[in-house]
Amino acid sequence: MAVFPESLDNLIEEFQKLPTIGRKSAERLAINIVERNENDIEEFSKALLEVKEKIHKCEICGNLTENDICSVCKDITRQEDYICVVEDVKDLIAIEKSGAFHGKYHVLGGLISPSDNIGPEELNIDKLIKRIDDEGINEIMLAISSTIEGETTTLFLSNLLADKDVRISKIAQGIPVGSNLEYFDQLTLERAIEDRREVLE
Q1: Which of 14, 89, 97, 115 has the fewest beta carbons under 10 Å from its own?
Q2: How do residues 101-119 score in pLDDT, each as one tens digit?
Q3: How big is the CA angle at 139 (ends 118 and 81), to the nearest 5 degrees?
Q4: Pairing of strands 167-170, 197-198
């Protein structure tokens, strides 16, 4: 016998598709939705549709924005010749919250993973090369998680950029192998950025 009505069970299944949401959390969220008044649900639905309609990738770096160019790329106070390369927007946000980085960003949109059929051509690498050539970039800091896929991507980018007149560094101390950047606290990320080291020394 089904514990939940079909419509509620469908909502639970949709919540379970979200990252880090297990069955119990999904049930709590779904029941909370049922218990809210119609006004709240309309506002919630409107916010979901609005974010899907308005949010897209920045034309320059791949960050999320409602405009053609994101607020970071527009910020004239940031160091123009220094780019931090990250896997995704979650990592960009984590580093930005640390307050330790004051340059620009470049979002790859994933990592090289042959087992998932993700090669360099699936990532936002061509635009990175163009930015290095066009924007007078002096340093590229690779802030990529120390997973197998992350190390593969770091090595690929290091080799690809080796003939460019640009310093290539990677975040260092405090980030253990096999870990994801988005889960680290502000101090750990700040130290990792400060203690970055050159790649292929």
Answers
A1: 115
A2: 999 999 999 999 998 999 9
A3: 110
A4: antiparallel
